Amino acid sequence: MGYFLGIDGGGTHLRIVVVDSALQVLGQAEGTGINPNHYNLLSMAGELIDPIEQALHAANITRVQLEAVGVGIAGGDTMQHDVARLIHYVLPSVRVVTASDAMIALVGAFAQAYGVVLIAGTGSIAFGCAEDGRTSTSGGWGYKMGDEGSGYWIGLQLLRRYTYVLDGRIANGTVTDAVAAQLKSPQRHDLVRWMYDAPRVSDVAALAPIALAHADDPFIAALLDQAAEELVLCAKTVMNALALPVDRLAFAGGLLSEENALSRRVMQRFGLSELPRCRYSPTIGAAIMAMKGA
User: Fold this and answer.
1) What SS3 class is residue 100?
2) Are the CB atoms for 72 and 97 separated by under 8 Å?
3) CB atoms within 10 A of CB 239
4) Is the distance from CB of 231 to CB of 116 less than 8 angstroms?
5) The CATH homologous superfamily of the domain defined by 151-270
6) What is the distance between the alpha carbons of residues 173 and 162, in angstroms, rounded to a whole number?
7) 56-104, pLDDT tens digit by residue?
8) Three-point CA angle 17, 282, 233, nearest 5°
9) The predicted structure's pLDDT at residue 101
10) Is residue 95 a contact partner of residue 294, using CB atoms and an 8 Å limit?
11) Do domains 3-111+279-293 and 151-270 have the same CATH topology?
12) Backbone angles phi, psi at 172, to 5 degrees
């Protein structure tokens, strides 16, 4: 029986799974996020070693029993050679199949590289693959250039709303109260220092659930409508480019994988009565790629 390792190396979380040839999960582990655009390969290898060992230990197998490793890393689609070197540094004798984090999400969604996955979590992206292997991407530009409809994008609008309160341009309200409470009520200089003295992508994205919890607020309702429109535009751009129907669409990421005020808005715009859930997780998608690549 063969054993395969799947690695989902997101920017904020690292997830690892060991499966057998029947896709039975034998071991799992988690770690901190890795991204080749942010970290050098040596430091990334250091982040991978312990979680891989934990997953193998939980599966009760050794490195030499692995047939292949599938890995999808945020930013890894432009650095596949370096990603393969990274894995070989940790697992020298194992075959490596590399992909982007969007590709392993797609493979996890449909158990094959055919369809479109719309992802909205900390960031946002739509990625698709046609039966003939053609791919298309819309969004995924990162928090500085895009990621409209993402957790960071929504959180940033809430943060800006709170600055209006601090300026006295608008009155405080339930939503800005919630933002202030989560940020421990910073004043102007505190907030400026907090925002600019370090990357705050995860912290800002963590404000997004406030919007989902206050969807009846007029400002939030308009914000979620705009977020839904942006996400739908990304998905439809990919679907049109590849001539893929709506039944080949799946939702993924923390903001879309469950029913909420945002995912329902996106569903309505596609005429869907049920949430188009992924069949498997991106980590399993990476393991499937390892299995098929091997």
Assistant:
1) strand
2) no
3) 22
4) no
5) ATPase, nucleotide binding domain (3.30.420.40)
6) 10
7) 899 998 888 888 999 888 665 555 556 777 777 778 888 888 888 899 9
8) 170
9) 87
10) yes
11) yes
12) -65, 160
Question: Residue 78 is encoded by which pair of tokens?
Answer: 């432009």
Tell me the C-alpha distance between 20 and 87, whole Å.
Answer: 20
**CATH no. for 3-111+279-293:** 3.30.420.40
3-state secondary structure 106-161: HHHHHCCCCEEEEEECCCEEEEEECCCCCEEEEECCCCCCCCCCCHHHHHHHHHHH
For the chain, the residue count is: 294
Q: Give the pLDDT score at 65.
A: 86
**CA angle, residues 55, 112, 254, in degrees to nearest 5:** 60
Cα separation, 174 vs 146, whole angstroms: 28
Residue 44 is inside which H or E element, if any? helix 41-59
Whether 285 contacts 19, CB under 8 Å? no
Q: Is the pTM for the entire model greater than 0.90?
A: no
Is 151 in contact with 208 (CB distance < 8 Å)? yes
User: Could you give the CA distance from residue 249 to residue 37 in angstroms, rounded to a whole number?
Assistant: 29
Token code pair at residue 191 = 């907030």
CB atoms near residue 280 (< 10 Å)? 21
Residues 6 or more apart whose Cβ sits within 8 Å of residue 262: 120, 149, 211, 212, 224, 227, 228, 255, 256
Q: Are 140 and 118 in contact (CB under 8 A)?
A: no
What are the residue boundaries of the structural domains of the chain, listed by start?
3-111+279-293, 151-270
The token pair at 164 is 């209006």
Checking 110-115 for CB contacts under 8 A at 24+ apart, the result is 110/248, 110/250, 110/278, 110/279, 111/279, 111/280, 111/288, 112/288, 114/248, 115/244, 115/248, 115/249, 115/250
Q: Which helix (H) or strand (E) holds 102?
A: helix 101-110
